[in-house]
Amino acid sequence: MVPSLAFSRHKTLIWIARMSFKAHRNMSATTQTNTYRNGPDQILPATSIKAWTADGAVRLQISEEEMKTRPPISVHTLMHKRATKNSNAIALAAKKDGKWKYWTYKDYYDESRIAAKAFIKLGLERFKGVCIMGGNAPEWVIANFGAIFAGGLSAGVYPTSTPEACRYLADNCKAQILVLEDKACLDRFLAVKDSLPSVKAIVQWSGSPGATGVLSWSDLMDMGKLEPDDELNERLSLAAVNQCCYLTYTSGTTGPPKGVMCSQDNLTYVGELYRKNNNHEFGKERLVSYLPLSHIAAQVVDIYTCITILGELYFAEPDALKGTLVKTLTEAQPTGFMGVPRVWEKMYESLMRAGTQAPLYKKILAKWAKEQGLQYYKAVLENRKLSVYEQVSHSLAKKLVLNKIKEAIGFGKLHQCVSVAAPVDDYLLEYFLSLDIPVVNVYGMSENITVCAFSYAEQGRFKIGSCGKVAPQIEVCIKSIPGGTPGEGEIIMKGRPVCMGYLEMPEKTHEAIDDEGWLHSGDVGHFDEEGFLYITARIKELIITAGGENVPPVIIEEIIKKELPFISNAMLVGDNKKFLSLLLTLKAEVDEITAESLPELTPYCKRVLTRMGCEARTVAEALDEVKKNPNGALAKAIQEGIDRYNDNHAVSNAQKIRNWRLLPADFSSYSGEYNNTLKLKRFYVLDKYKDLIDSMYSVPHMTEEF
Fold first, then answer.
1. DSSP conformation letters of 473-504
2. N or C: which end of the chain has fewer CB within 10 A?
3. DSSP letters for 563-592
């Protein structure tokens, strides 16, 4: 019987003692039947490359050469090496009471072991879940390693998750321990605690525990310090690199989230893969952690790559995206930075706003400097050698303007910027290139654990619009699609980073990974003649018109947004219809805490609308103008942008846009149009605006017949 969470501290201690005895008895019964006790770096016998049970083992996709040169190691061994060979190197840094507090690699490792011993004491069994929910913090990553060291399954939960989403994830991984940041996170789990019989203990790492029976972080550490190492060492002896240790959940754009099973080898190998494919200097890199650690990109870069390269990880403050991120960047001085498109948009808008407030002479100087910066990178893109004049101009522009801008936003020591989760718009890439801040797209997915294609701001390795060239450690092929464009098809990949499968989902596992080990991405793309990879659509997003033509919406949507820079989202519709239409949203302010789209238009959007003769200051005002005056400035500008696409970019009549509607609010994760990684949930939008979409196919509106 699982005790209620509402018990006294005295009863808590009695319950912990009972659960500790029960856990020891259960573990003993397990180890009696398990003869493989050569962990943590052992490889268990396995014939299949796929698994979907928590304790399943897989055959690693590793060559004999790799086995000799880079044999698999466990997460514990990776950490132990750093803690022993580089014990005094700085590993983590976080603001505590306004001052930076530092953890060495020895501290990092020791506290992870302490957390592991406490989890075992609390009753954590092997291959059972430890759900971690909250903002990026040392406690998050220490709990992650504690769960893995103890033989459990670490599972990140997005801080924005609803109570039902929390219940789903905790139930899927049979969570026995919940590690939560604060009362807000706690309340979401308490709302569904009656549906989570497996949960044995809850830990809250920030503030005072928000409910009776909830342990504080110091309680957890004190408990672990009192425990001997015997039980933990026993768990480590049973560990294997080809078994699951971490679950990253898919975003749920096409159905319920799936628990992607990451083996220990997956995680330690991708850290090494990043080191090999990027010019990281061992012991000299600094990163800032602010993207949710439950996202696979942050997991791989902030945790495993950082440890592999002996990097320093600085945690941003909880309100990073509300304005404090730049302060953290200027203090931490990172050498690498990873952002999602929304982050680049916010930086762009902030820099543009600052530019408009500068004196005239500074505006003129900045304009000249940015022209030199863009000219330099155009030469890089074109594989063209700069003239002496261009070289001198670029050097002068950097010294007078560009370096100062970079230092002001904390990018003074930066040598790499990548955009993850979704493609970043070309106009943003060009803007940051002009500031001597090359932002490159990369391509990967949760199921591949890492990125399979990289870009670098160097000659022959970078093209705007491309996500780069395939990493040499991964195989990537294009599988043709019936009725598709020649040379274009589904991107499939194979190699050691490919995940084990989906937890408790054998059918979905077989759909995603075939028997030869090829991971079917569901993304449509192609290679150009130089080997650069381009992503054009998702297979499930392909629009098939009533005439049977396959239309990739992403390409068209990106062109529309470039033609109409005041537009935030352009979503193409027309599946099984006679023609294509568009749903459009204006750029609106966002509540950085709730991620809710606000009524007020962004300053940039208002400036653009004012220049075209529209005085709207809110989304509602703009929508009202379009409805009342279909021939007015805003409606005319939108139609002209669509006409430019139709005339200059549409490859056939079937790919021309014949109708559009402006929506009453911008898309957001708060209102459901985006998932946690800011990918568009098309099925949700189609259902939400079904009546509006139907109206576009019943009455012609601001369009002409073709």
1. TSEEEEEE-TT--TT-EEEEEESTTS--EETT
2. N
3. H-TTEEEEEEE-TTSSSEEEEEEE-EEE-T
